[in-house]
Amino acid sequence: MGSERNKSKVSFHTFAVKGFAYGNAAGKRRISRNLLPNPIGLCIFQVMMEIHAEELRLPPPVYFLSDAHLGAEPEPIASRQKESFLALCDTVAGKNGALVLNGDLFDFWYEWKTVVPKQFFWVLHALRKLTEQGHDVHLLPGNHDFRLHGFLEREIGIRTHRDALSLQIAEHKLFVFHGDGLLKSDHGYRFIRRVFRNPASQKVFSWLHPDLGMWRARGTSQQSRNATKGNPTEDKDYMEFALKKIDEGFHGVVLGHAHRPQEIQHSGGTYVNLGDWIYHYTYAVHDGQSLQLKRWFEGEAK
Asked: Is residue 194 included in any domain, yes or no?
């Protein structure tokens, strides 16, 4: 099953520590207050968050899933996640489809030079089985699994992406992005996101023994999951971003991160938030004609 891709920068968000500013290419909003002491006006810096969308074409059907956070949940949730995920992979194969994993498949993923987390052997085996059968599997980074340095591509056959996708399915163009950093209140997170993804920070973390690194990451991941649960009123920020993309010409927008499934029709387009694969077991399918949010029940798509 073939695919085509190249890179294009589609939008950006900025903020500054002195007098926070945030916005996008169309305009910026400013909060006129100093968040750090700056008596001589010199302690000013700006951090830009850019969303790079790679252009990709896939034949239908295409399945979308995000926020499984595999490795985080105790039994019996972990077993249900495993059984349902394996059944979904079988469905993708049976429908001759493609699978797009839209961030946070793993609760924590890191590739040391010679080590990867062993508890994910079962899911890596399932995904390699799909790719060996000729099915496209694509992985976008989330805020828990952005350390993608080639192992998944070389050994599993997954195609990994830096940020987002501008995805063409038949006559429809979709914007696909995990969604972290889109909230208007995410000022601090956007700064931390840039720090954590900086090559120097990644290099320093790689010096930790994997057992120590995993122990530290589990605590950080738990804090992040608690923060992500958030308030349902925050959904309006994701919706505002998605509807703007539809107004720009996309036929659909697929986000995750919020852990709250949504499907909204707007101006002939569809916005879907994928929810999660922990409690909701929601996912989306584009069959070449429409994008639909679905729920998985007892190993069978409904």
From this structure: no
